[in-house]
Amino acid sequence: MSDERPERPPAAGLLDALRVRRNATAGVVAGIVLAALVYLVRVFELIGPVTGTQRYPILGPEGWFLGLAFVLASATALFVTAALTVVTAVRLARRL
């Protein structure tokens, strides 16, 4: 048995072929835009006030909605990046 590891091809080529950097950029932009829109609508009550009474301990409503906006932006960025990467992979597979 040999203690040497076999050579592996660099992953950078795969990432470039799938255009992951471009897809991640598009995902982050989409996530930030969506989260900002939802945050603005909710905090500034652009579609009317929330019915009923809510209590937002410690941070207040702006703080809680900012945290939710971060979660929404992260999830949207991940989803859009994954979807665009899958579409790119399918296109490359069909071309080959």
From TrEMBL:
InterPro entries according to UniProt: DUF7536
Keywords of this entry: Membrane, Transmembrane, Transmembrane helix
Bilayer-crossing regions: 24-44, 64-90
Domain of life: Archaea
UniProt keyword Membrane present: yes
Pfam families, per database record: DUF7536
Protein name per Swiss-Prot or TrEMBL: Cox cluster protein
